[in-house]
Design a protein that fits this description.
By secondary structure, this protein is mostly beta strands. The protein has a single domain, classed as Sandwich (Jelly Rolls). The chain contains three helices and nine strands, in the order ααβββββββββα. It has a five-stranded antiparallel beta sheet with strand order 1-2-9-4-7, with helices on one face. It has a four-stranded antiparallel beta sheet with strand order 3-8-5-6, with no helix packed on it. It starts with about 40 loop residues before the first helix and ends with a helix. About 25% of the residues are buried.
Length: about 150
């Protein structure tokens, strides 16, 4: 899925548990004891970003741990994230709007409030049928982490 297009920074300079920072917001220390997130506010924040004003999508990493990544993405109507594969099992949950997920053997419509699960390495792309926002969660198993190292 998206590689933190809104706020890219080198992962080698970021400690485990630290979210991306950028010119528009500082990096945050995140612990997995309890992390309350206001997803509506996060989407609104994305809509205020320069990358949203100038492009067709933007994303923000909310949680970045060795075995877990949570990213919120805003995608303009007609926008598309081209085919790619994720190294872990993923969920895509539509927060607002309507998405269409294309896999090698089917198209899946995802209106707001719907979620889909994809197995590790499943090729897919994401298309916004309406202006949309979605929550991407990627989970890596210990075995997948070891294979990647």
């Amino acid at each position: 899925m998206p590689s933190d297009q809104a706020n890219t920074s080198s992962s080698s300079t970021r400690a485990d548990g630290q979210t991306d920072g950028g010119a528009e917001r500082p990096a945050d220390e995140a612990t997995l004891v309890a992390i309350p997130l206001d997803l509506a506010a996060e989407v609104e924040h994305l809509h205020q970003q320069e990358s949203w004003r100038k492009g067709d999508h933007t994303a923000r990493t909310l949680i970045k741990q060795p075995d877990l990544r949570v990213v919120v993405t805003a995608l303009r109507q007609g926008g598309r994230i081209e085919e790619h594969r994720a190294p872990g099992r993923i969920t895509i949950q539509t927060l607002t709007g309507r998405l269409r997920l294309h896999t090698h053997d089917k198209d899946i419509d995802l209106p707001a409030g719907h979620i889909v699960v994809l197995e590790p390495g499943a090729a897919h792309d994401v298309e916004a049928l309406d202006e949309s926002a979605f929550l991407l969660t990627i989970v890596w198993s210990a075995r997948a982490q070891q294979a990647a190292e």
